[in-house]
Write a structure and sequence with these properties.
By secondary structure, this protein is α/β, with parallel strands linked by helices. The protein has helices spanning about 10-25, 40-50, 65-90, 105-115, 130-135, 165-170, 175-185, 205-210, 235-245, 260-265, 275-285, 300-310, 325-335, 340-345, 355-370, and strands at about 5-10, 30-35, 55-60, 95-100, 120, 140-145, 155-160, 195-200, 225-230, 250-255, 270, 285-290, 315. The longest helix has 25 residues, at about 65-90.
């Protein structure tokens, strides 16, 4: 396989694993084209260009019960099909990989019309409606996790893992080295000797995590704690007073690119349960307190969290159960049993798939090379 088109629609949950696969393919001598649909496409094209990856935007939106929005979806799909078909015809790929969502309908249809083999990737523990529909056109589907409804797919399904950024896979450091680098980058005064908790709510942050996952009162036992908090764009100013009142050290940022440093520095992770997040936590083998986003489509973050829980390396706290008092009690227990929790976190590594990008590409290559 020398040429591959990867189609990504909508959110970073589709784009980032698609970009990781593209980078792996290109680093191994392949030529790749990204087809990007949705409102985030311009920014995603800029990101792809940083890695020397060629990309193209096509019109995309999502089906809706609202007649006006449904009309928009049909119009975008038709115009997207024309643009994608022209791109497929010019690029002449050996295969097309679609990363999910109904934004993939146009590129998948374009590939099928030109007899280009179609493959799918799903990033959650429950197949979405779009991939279930598109599976009838696919040679095979790559699964990030053991999937609850894989039997409903109309093509073979292969578990490959969730493709993660190469920097995350190769970036694990000792706690001391990671904290030294964080101190240098952010002019912080963190100590590798202190228990360290990483708290974040995804790329946009999460109010419940930002405001409820804090220490209540002034317990003596938590004074040696240090928190690494990624609050989300535009949210830090409103939280500064809250974090300044904490009786422990807090490094609070809106966001950061160097996630390998934060995972390496942490003894405990508190976060949402997106497909990429739980996969990253598994690779680093950190114990996690997971708070699934309650409004995720088909409650898929709950299922993602249960995957990590199944290895013994995490537990679930629902938004409706979160409180400062409850979190403080939980942290006090964690402080008393840190080694036990550390050993539990290591169990997550038994289900990690750090070579997922390569596994997806191997699946495509093996099937496209089958005798006709």
């Amino acid at each position: 396989m020398k040429r591959l088109i990867i189609s990504c629609g909508g959110t970073g949950g589709h784009f980032m694993p698609g970009l990781s696969i593209a980078r792996t393919f290109q680093e191994n001598g392949g030529e790749v084209l990204l087809l990007l649909g949705g409102k985030n496409a311009p920014k995603q094209m800029e990101t792809a260009a940083k890695y020397g990856i060629v990309s193209m935007q096509f019109p995309a939106s999502y089906p809706s019960a609202n007649p006006i929005r449904m009309g928009k979806f049909l119009f975008h799909t038709a115009s997207g099909y024309i643009k994608c078909r022209d791109a497929v015809k010019k690029f002449q790929p050996d295969a097309l990989l679609a990363m999910g969502s109904f934004a993939s309908l146009a590129p998948v249809s374009a590939a099928k019309s030109l007899n280009v083999p179609v493959f799918l990737h799903d990033g959650n523990t429950k197949l979405g409606k779009a991939n279930l529909f598109l599976s009838r056109y696919a040679k095979a589907m790559a699964l990030s996790f053991p999937t609850l409804n894989a039997d409903q797919a109309k093509c073979p399904a292969v578990q490959t893992g969730f493709p993660l950024r190469p920097e995350l896979i190769a970036g694990e450091l000792s706690k001391a080295d990671a904290i030294a680098e964080l101190n240098r980058l952010y002019n912080a005064n963190l100590s590798p000797e202190r228990p360290t908790v990483l708290v974040f709510g995804g790329s946009l942050g999460a109010d419940t995590i930002n405001k409820k996952m804090v220490i209540e009162g002034d317990p003596e036992e938590t004074k040696d704690l240090q928190f690494l908090r990624l609050c989300g764009p535009g949210k830090l100013d409103s939280l500064k007073e809250l974090y300044d009142r904490q009786n422990c050290k807090v490094l609070a940022l809106e966001s950061a690119q160097e996630m390998h440093l934060f995972y390496s520095a942490a003894d405990l992770v508190i976060s949402r349960a997106g497909g990429s997040t739980v996969s990253e936590i598994a690779v680093y083998g950190k114990y996690a307190l997971l708070m699934p986003y309650p409004f995720a489509a088909e409650n898929h973050q709950e299922d993602n969290a249960r995957w990590l829980v199944s290895a013994g390396g995490a537990e679930i706290l629902h938004d409706s159960e979160a409180s400062e008092a409850g979190f403080t009690a939980w942290i006090l227990n964690w402080l008393k049993h840190q080694q036990e929790f550390r050993e539990k976190g290591k169990k997550s590594k038994t289900i990690a798939r750090p070579d997922a990008s390569r596994q997806v590409l191997d699946m495509i290559e093996n099937i496209t090379n089958l005798p006709k």
